C-alpha cells in the first residue's frame, strides 16, 4: 500500500467523531468502536497464547534440525516451514496485543500506527504464509519423487536443490504481494483526541482503491489469481500427491515381507514408511485449514466482482479460519516426536546430553570390574586392534538423502583366526572389522 499525507479531505464533526467523505475510511476501524467480543476472545486472548507456544516449539524443531548429522534435503524444507510459520505468527503479535488484548480502540488511531498495522498485520504474514504453503508443496513433491521415482532422487532431491526451491518460493511470494502495497493510500487527518480535547494529533485514514468502481474489476481479478496461486493450486497438488503416497504406502505394506530380506533392512524400511506417513499427516492438517480459506477468498472475490456485499457471518468465519491456521502451527512438533524415532532421539540427546553422558560413564565404570572378574582376565591381558572402522552418520529425521540415506545394512564379519587365546588363558588378539555395503 502506498502512503501519503493529505489533510484537505472534507469533514464534519458530530459528537466528537469526524465523519469522513471523499472515499476515505478509518483504519483499521472507526474510532470509539471496539471490535466485537469474538475478536477479543480469538485475537486478543487465544491467538497470542498460541503464537507463544508455536514460537517455542518451532524453535525446538529448528535447534534439532540444525544439527549437522540431521542435515538433509527434507529436513531443510521442514526447517523452512517451521521458520515461516513462526514469522507468520510473530509479526502480527504486537497488533493483537495493542488492539484486541488491551483494546486501544476508544480513541483515534495514530497515523504512524496505520502503516505499522498494515505491514505487520496484513502484508508480512501473507508473504510468510505464502512461503510456508509453497514449501509444503515442494516437500510433498520431494517425497513423491523418493517414493515413486527413486532413481531420480539423487538428481532432484539434494540440499542445493532444496535451497534453490526455497529461494524461488521467496521470490514468488514477494511478487504476489506487490499489489497489496498499491491497493490504497494512507492519509493523515488532524483531530482532537476523544479522551483529551486539548490533545491534537494526526489520525490514520485510508483510501481503498479496491472499492473504487474504476479499479474494482482489476482487484477482483487479482484476488482470484491470488486464490488460485496461493490456495487452490497448492491444495490441488497436495491432494494429488497425498493420494499417490497413500496408495504407494498400501502397496509397500503388502510387499514388505517379500522385499525386505534382512532384519536391518526391515527396520530401515519401517522408518521410511513412518516418515512418509508423517508427511501425509502434516499435509492433511494443512489441507484441513487451507481449503476453507481458499473457498472464502474465492467467494469474496466473486462478491467484489459483482459489486455485492458479503454476508455478515463472513467476518466471523474468516476470524475462525485465521485462528485455525495459527492453531495448526504448533501441531507439527508433536507429529515429528510421535512419528520420527530419529527426531525423538536427537531431541532427547540435545536436551538431556549431560544426564545421558553421566549415566553412560557410571554404567561403564560398574561394568568394567564385573567383566574382568567374571572372565578371569585383566585389561592388561586384552589387546584390541580395530581396523577399517568407518563411523556411519546418525539417522536423520527423514532418511531420504541420496546415497547416505538409502536404506542399507551394515554387515559384521568375524574371522575365527582373529581371536587367539594363549596357553595361559589370556586373549592375545581381538580384531573386529566393520564392513559397510553402502556404495
From TrEMBL:
PANTHER family, from UniProt? SEX PEPTIDE RECEPTOR
Which protein, by its recorded name, is this?
G-protein coupled receptors family 1 profile domain-containing protein
Q: Would I find Ribonucleoprotein among this entry's keywords? A: no
Domain spans labelled G-protein coupled receptors family 1 profile: 57-336
Cellular localization per UniProt: Membrane
Q: Which CDD domains match?
A: 7tmA_FMRFamide_R-like (cd14978)
Q: Which GO terms describe its cellular component?
A: membrane
Instruction: Tell me where the transmembrane regions lie.
Output: 37-65, 77-103, 123-141, 162-182, 219-246, 277-304, 316-337
Database matches in PROSITE patterns: G_PROTEIN_RECEP_F1_2
Q: Which UniProt keywords apply?
A: Membrane, Transmembrane, Transmembrane helix
Under the GO molecular function aspect, what terms does this record hold? G protein-coupled peptide receptor activity
Q: What main location does UniProt list?
A: membrane
Recorded hits in InterPro entries, A to Z, give: 7TM_GPCR_serpentine_rcpt_Srw, GPCR1-related_rcpt, GPCR_Rhodpsn, GPCR_Rhodpsn_7TM
Amino acid at each position: 500500500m502506498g502512503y501519503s499525507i493529505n489533510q484537505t479531505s472534507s469533514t464534519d464533526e458530530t459528537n466528537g467523531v469526524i465523519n469522513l467523505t471523499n472515499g476515505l475510511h478509518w483504519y483499521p476501524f472507526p474510532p470509539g468502536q471496539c471490535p466485537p467480543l469474538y475478536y477479543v476472545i480469538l485475537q486478543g486472548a487465544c491467538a497470542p497464547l498460541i503464537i507463544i507456544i508455536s514460537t517455542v516449539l518451532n524453535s525446538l524443531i529448528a535447534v534439532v534440525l540444525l544439527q549437522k548429522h540431521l542435515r538433509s534435503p527434507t529436513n531443510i524444507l521442514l526447517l523452512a516451514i517451521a521458520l515461516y510459520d513462526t514469522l507468520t505468527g510473530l509479526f502480527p503479535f504486537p497488533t493483537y496485543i495493542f488492539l484486541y488484548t488491551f483494546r486501544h480502540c476508544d480513541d483515534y488511531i495514530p497515523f504512524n500506527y496505520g502503516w505499522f498495522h498494515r505491514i505487520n498485520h496484513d502484508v508480512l504474514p501473507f508473504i510468510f504464509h505464502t512461503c510456508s504453503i509453497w514449501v509444503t508443496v515442494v516437500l510433498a513433491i520431494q517425497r513423491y519423487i523418493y517414493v515413486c521415482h527413486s532413481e531420480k532422487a539423487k538428481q532432484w532431491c539434494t540440499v542445493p536443490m532444496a535451497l534453490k526451491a526455497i529461494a524461488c518460493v521467496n521470490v514468488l511470494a514477494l511478487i504476489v504481494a506487490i499489489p497489496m502495497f498499491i491497493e490504497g493510500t494512507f492519509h493523515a487527518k488532524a483531530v482532537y483526541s476523544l479522551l483529551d480535547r486539548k490533545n491534537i494529533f494526526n489520525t490514520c485514514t485510508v483510501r481503498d482503491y479496491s472499492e473504487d468502481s474504476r479499479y474494482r474489476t482489476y482487484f477482483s481479478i487479482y484476488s482470484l489469481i491470488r486464490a488460485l496461486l496461493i490456495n487452490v493450486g497448492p491444495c490441488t497438488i497436495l491432494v494429488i500427491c497425498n493420494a499417490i503416497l497413500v496408495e504407494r504406502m498400501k502397496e509397500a505394506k503388502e510387499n514388505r515381507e517379500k522385499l525386505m530380506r534382512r532384519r536391518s533392512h526391515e527396520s530401515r524400511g519401517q522408518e521410511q514408511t513412518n516418515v512418509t506417513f508423517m508427511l501425509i499427516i502434516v499435509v492433511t492438517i494443512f489441507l484441513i485449514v487451507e481449503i476453507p480459506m481458499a473457498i472464502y477468498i474465492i467467494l469474496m472475490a466473486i462478491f467484489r466482482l459483482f459489486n455485492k456485499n458479503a454476508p455478515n457471518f463472513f467476518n466471523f468465519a474468516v476470524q475462525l479460519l485465521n485462528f485455525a491456521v495459527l492453531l495448526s502451527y504448533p501441531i507439527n512438533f508433536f507429529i515429528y516426536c510421535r512419528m520420527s524415532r530419529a527426531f525423538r532421539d536427537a531431541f532427547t540427546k540435545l536436551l538431556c546430553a549431560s544426564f545421558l553422558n553421566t549415566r553412560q560413564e557410571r554404567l561403564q565404570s560398574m561394568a568394567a570390574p564385573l567383566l574382568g572378574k567374571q572372565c578371569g582376565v585383566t585389561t592388561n591381558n586384552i589387546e584390541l586392534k580395530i581396523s577399517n572402522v568407518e563411523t556411519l552418520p546418525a539417522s536423520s529425521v527423514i532418511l531420504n538423502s541420496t546415497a547416505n540415506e538409502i536404506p542399507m545394512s551394515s554387515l559384521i564379519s568375524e574371522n575365527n583366526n582373529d581371536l587367539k587365546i594363549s596357553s595361559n588363558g589370556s586373549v592375545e588378539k581381538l580384531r573386529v572389522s566393520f564392513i559397510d555395503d553402502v556404495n
